[in-house]
Write a structure and sequence with these properties.
14 strands; single chain; 4-stranded antiparallel β-sheet; globular; 13% helix
Length: 217
Amino acid sequence: NIKTNSQSSTPFLNPIPSKPIPFLSQVQLENMYATTAFLISSIFASTILAAPSAILSTRTCSTVYPEVARVSEAQPDASKLSGFTISQDVGATNKQDVLIEFTVPAGSYGCQLEVQFPADYPIQTSGQTQVYVYSTDKNLPRSSQGIDVSWNNSPAEVSQVATVRFEENPTANKVLNSFVCKPKLTFRLSISKDQTAAGFVSFVQSAAAGLKLTYNC
């Protein structure tokens, strides 16, 4: 006969004595919340600082310099006159105007006409030197030999878009105006038409001094 014990052969597990949950004081709770908030804000700040540096960098502008053509009222059919000279005699007669044209890459934006001269750059002036800048009704005419423009066939003024006195400005570019970019931007420069006094402005236009067009800033 098989005898069985009155007690089970499986041992009972002694229950783990429970410990009372400590209560946090108001000060301890506030410190815990403050620590949590600090950790969250630190993580957020580090995420922002880890963003690509290119987003924070300053974008640089592209620059193009003008083709220049001078036209003379006294030589109405003469083309390919050299030099950047704007002038008129008393009574706003015998005028010499300058036409400038910029070639702008397709898809460009934010075109700005600017002027700058380094310190002590030679600029010849006399009398009335206020120059008006005009938009024109067409681009510079060209032949097989390039720009071919005279007083009689030159682009006419449409509207005044800027006023400028050419002077030394070694510290910064002077923005004359902003324009919608087009493949060709053409401007006519003339002594102020509402001034009848004689005037003369002349300098060497180059990449180092004078007029330029910036875009994609």
